[in-house]
């Protein structure tokens, strides 16, 4: 599927731009639009379209062309789409990527061509460490960091043993490594379940093993549709009163409407960790959340917030060089400053171009209209840098 959204006006041809100057900024955006995981990709697409509206379709006076591509949740397809964006469309920037395994498969095509690659979600440890690249930037986090924050929360709550579950792919392994990096108690058991286009959605066997393990708590990472299925089965298994549930990237603004519709009351009051929340108090976040709710009728997810940030990060780079897209050194230097209005407020980039930022404990609550959302309870880690930055030679 190829969908072009262009702010290119009729002005193009006759403006007679200087020989070395581009007449527009071209941005490719790769995400999952089909398959059940497409609900995440749609939130990201909605956010970049909102960002395009909010910047008036312009960067440094240049029109912006946005080309959205569907990776189909498949690494080979993601690579094909990046190849197309680089060779045929000749884009200046490529953003997006929900999944770490898709990003890992596709990154070489972009980076070998000297194209700026910006992950709007996936944060595999490989790219944060030994495979870091001068033209790669993240507007999200490194995979280990959010579960590391949850490991600290488990310690603060006095949990002595936990059973962990995650999908069997690059991010799932990073997430488990993250919680185990900070949790000081015992890992009573561990399950990695099937992931991809035909992801496992029946967790009855794994939940039975978790119950039999005697662990005090259950920790899970299940984004998208799998998260809702897991929580529903967790409640049906009667574990809510005996094995508290701790999650990362599972209970979010995409899952909550369905969980509320299913009246899974146990979700209210549950807590998770994240670097962002819809109630984070800064001007850009207020503008983003209010604009998103007005346009789409529901709360944005963190996937959306990071995608919105991606457009503004690119805008800061283009404007720093006054629209001279041939000045890659200048644009890279501008992005390293992270000097743009982010939905998370001010943050800085580490040497590996991953954010150094706060991580918060969030609680699921009902807002004034009775809509389930999250509120920030406390700051768990301040100005946190991922543990792989030291392996990056930049």
What's the β-strand tally?
Answer: 15
Query: Over all CA atoms, what is the radius of gyration?
Result: 21 Å
Figure out the total of helices: 12
Shape assignment = globular
Helix and strand sequence: EEHEEHEHEHEHEHEHEHEHEHHHEEE
Ends apart, CA distance between termini: 36 Å
Q: Identify low-pLDDT runs.
A: 1-19
How much beta, percentage-wise?
Answer: 15-25%
**Average pLDDT number:** 92
Helix share bin? 25-40%
**Major beta sheet, specifics?**
7 strands, mixed
Task: Give the helix/strand class.
Answer: alpha/beta
List its salient traits.
394 residues, alpha/beta, 7-stranded mixed beta sheet, 4-stranded parallel beta sheet, disordered N terminus
Per-chain topology:
Elements: E1 2-6, E2 24-31, H1 38-54, E3 58-59, E4 62-70, H2 75-87, E5 93-96, H3 100-112, E6 116-119, H4 125-128, E7 136-138, H5 145-156, E8 161-167, H6 170-182, E9 186-193, H7 204-213, E10 217-220, H8 225-236, E11 245-247, H9 256-261, E12 271-274, H10 283-296, H11 302-320, H12 328-336, E13 348-349, E14 355-366, E15 372-384
Parallel strand pairs: 2-4, 2-5, 5-6, 6-7, 8-9, 8-10, 10-11
Antiparallel strand pairs: 1-4, 3-4, 12-14, 13-14, 14-15
Helix pairs in contact: 1-10, 1-11, 2-3, 5-6, 11-12
Brief overview, please?
Helix content is 36%, strand content 22%. It contains twelve helices and 15 strands.
Question: What does this entry look like structurally?
Answer:
This protein has 394 residues and is α/β, with parallel strands linked by helices. Helices cover 36% and strands 22% of the residues. The chain has 12 helices and 15 strands. Strands 1, 2, 3, 4, 5, 6 and 7 form a 7-stranded mixed beta sheet that branches. A hairpin with a 5-residue loop joins β14 and β15. α1 runs parallel beside α11 (302-320), α5 (145-156) packs parallel to α6 (170-182) and α11 packs across α12. The two termini are 36 Å apart.
């Amino acid at each position: 599927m190829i969908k072009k959204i262009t702010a290119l006006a009729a002005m193009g041809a006759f403006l007679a731009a200087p020989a070395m100057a581009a007449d527009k900024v071209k941005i490719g955006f790769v995400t999952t639009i089909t398959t059940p995981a497409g609900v995440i990709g749609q939130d990201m697409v909605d956010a970049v379209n909102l960002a395009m509206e909010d910047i008036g379709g312009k960067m440094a006076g240049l029109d912006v062309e946005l080309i959205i591509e569907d990776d189909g949740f498949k690494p080979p397809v993601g690579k094909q789409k990046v190849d197309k964006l680089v060779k045929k469309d000749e884009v200046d920037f490529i953003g997006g990527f929900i999944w770490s395994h898709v990003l890992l498969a596709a990154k070489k095509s972009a980076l070998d061509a000297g194209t700026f690659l910006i992950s709007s979600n996936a944060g595999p440890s490989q790219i944060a460490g030994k495979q870091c690249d001068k033209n790669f930037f993240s507007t999200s986090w490194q995979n280990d960091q959010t579960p590391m924050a949850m490991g600290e929360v488990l310690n603060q709550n006095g949990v002595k043993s936990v059973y962990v579950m995650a999908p069997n792919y690059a991010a799932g392994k990073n997430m488990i490594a993250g919680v185990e990096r900070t949790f000081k108690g015992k890992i009573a058991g561990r399950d990695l379940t099937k992931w991809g286009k035909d992801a496992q959605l029946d967790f009855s066997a794994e939940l039975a093993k978790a119950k039999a393990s005697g662990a005090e708590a259950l920790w899970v990472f299940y984004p998208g549709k799998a998260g809702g299925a897991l929580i529903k089965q967790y409640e049906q298994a009667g574990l809510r009163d005996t094995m508290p549930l701790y999650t990362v990237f599972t209970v979010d603004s995409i899952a909550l409407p369905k969980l509320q519709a299913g009246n899974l009351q146990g979700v209210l009051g549950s807590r998770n960790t994240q670097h962002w929340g819809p109630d984070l108090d800064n001007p850009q976040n207020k503008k983003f959340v209010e604009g998103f709710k007005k346009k789409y009728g529901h709360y944005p997810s963190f996937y959306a917030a990071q995608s919105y940030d991606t457009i503004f990060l690119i805008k800061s780079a283009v404007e720093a060089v006054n629209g001279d897209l041939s000045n890659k050194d200048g644009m890279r230097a501008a992005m390293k400053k992270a000097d743009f209005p982010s939905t998370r407020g001010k943050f800085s980039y580490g040497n590996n171009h991953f954010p150094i930022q706060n991580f918060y404990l969030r609680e699921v609550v009902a807002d004034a209209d009775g809509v389930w959302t999250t509120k920030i309870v406390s700051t768990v880690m301040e100005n946190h840098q991922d543990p792989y930055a030291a392996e990056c030679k930049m």
